[in-house]
UniProtKB/TrEMBL annotation:
<feature type="domain" description="Cupin type-2">
    <location>
        <begin position="1"/>
        <end position="53"/>
    </location>
</feature>
<dbReference type="InterPro" id="IPR011051">
    <property type="entry name" value="RmlC_Cupin_sf"/>
</dbReference>
<dbReference type="Pfam" id="PF07883">
    <property type="entry name" value="Cupin_2"/>
</dbReference>
<dbReference type="InterPro" id="IPR014710">
    <property type="entry name" value="RmlC-like_jellyroll"/>
</dbReference>
<protein>
    <submittedName>
        <fullName>Mannose-6-phosphate isomerase-like protein (Cupin superfamily)</fullName>
    </submittedName>
</protein>
<keyword id="KW-0413">Isomerase</keyword>
<dbReference type="GO" id="GO:0016853">
    <property type="term" value="F:isomerase activity"/>
</dbReference>
<dbReference type="InterPro" id="IPR013096">
    <property type="entry name" value="Cupin_2"/>
</dbReference>
Amino acid sequence: MFRILEGRLTIWRLTDNGPEEIEAGAGDIVTIAPFMVHGYANRGSVPVVFSAVVDRDMAEFIEAEGASEPPQTSPSAETIARMTAAANAYGITILAA
């Protein structure tokens, strides 16, 4: 579940009816079913603030691998490989965008 506090967030999810794209703004709540393929991005120039309710594996992955500040550049191939391997260790599958 994503709760948007400030800004706008684009959320994608793959439903039984096909792909769905949601433009969520402050005050919106978007739910994601367990094991549903999904992703999100801030397409704007203004920061977005949101809270998310996640399961234990995801929370532990974020705690272990996350950063408190956003990266200043796109991730390198090595960083993507490291994060993908780390996610797999927590039972999380990262799909290519």
